[in-house]
From TrEMBL, chain A:
This is DUF6691 family protein. The chain crosses the membrane at residues 41-61, 82-100, 112-130. Keywords: Membrane, Transmembrane, Transmembrane helix. Pfam families: DUF6691.
From TrEMBL, chain B:
It is found in: Cell inner membrane. The keyword Transmembrane helix applies. This is YeeE/YedE family protein. GO terms for cellular component: plasma membrane. The keyword Cell division does not apply. It comes from Chromohalobacter japonicus. Keywords: Cell inner membrane, Cell membrane, Membrane, Transmembrane, Transmembrane helix, Transport. The chain crosses the membrane at residues 6-31, 52-73, 93-116, 128-148. It is a multi-pass membrane protein.
Amino acid sequence: MKMLAGYLAGLTFGLGLAISGMTDPARVIGFLDVAGAWDPTLIFVLGGAVVTTFIGYRLVWRRQTPLFESRFQLPTRRDLDIRLLGGAALFGIGWGLSGYCPGPAVASLSGLSWPLAAFIVTLIAGWWLARRMNSRH
Amino acid sequence: MESMSALQGLLGGVLIGLSATLLMGLLGRVAGISGILSGLVFERGRDRPWRVAFLLGLVSGPGLLMLSGLGWGNVAGDSGAMIGAPASGLTTMLIAGLLVGLGTGLGSGCTSGHGVCGLARLSPRSMAATLVFVLVAMLTVFVSRHWLGGAP
């Protein structure tokens, strides 16, 4: 059942990315390009997703536990640190250069191209490097 | 045409929100793509099966839509396509991938974990991270497109 739950969540996420146009880097860069021909689509995607999640979370949190697990696992930290903000800044540079964040990049695998493959290889290398830096911290 | 793409954006966004709700309601987890996928690559243990299934779902969603030929994609300037062309060549993509991996690894989240789930939880860390990566990405596009000229 947990695998089915994971598949359904992944499938819905992938369908959402494709239907919204987030599997198109030109749409994403169009949103980020505030000084050019600005494309507002991403605002609608983020807005729809945040509002739905906000309501959905509050509905499922009425239960004591999730359906197939013993507890909800939520991040608890609330402080800001340089690792969080510096990481977000590095991510922003990469996102602006490519128009890909991790979800859309991986969801685009069925339209694989060399630049996308290159992105995913170094994406995984970056995760590896971050894990090494985090564990030494 | 433009209002159609906004509507599709909204509909797709609602689906992403439903996915996040499903993952929380069924497995009690935040739908952060960078956390799920890097965990899948670098961690062993009991989370592995559902993470593999999530990855298969994530890839098969757009793949199934492509095969269905329904034309529900929202690629700018190509109504038949489901997946847009990469924005730059190999070198830029190699650098961008590394920065996205390193940044989401150190900053513990990407557009989904911080941008969607974190904002919906009203987490101050996620609000700060989202503000930083959106503004830095806008600045990056401004510098690469308008200062250095042409697409990167």
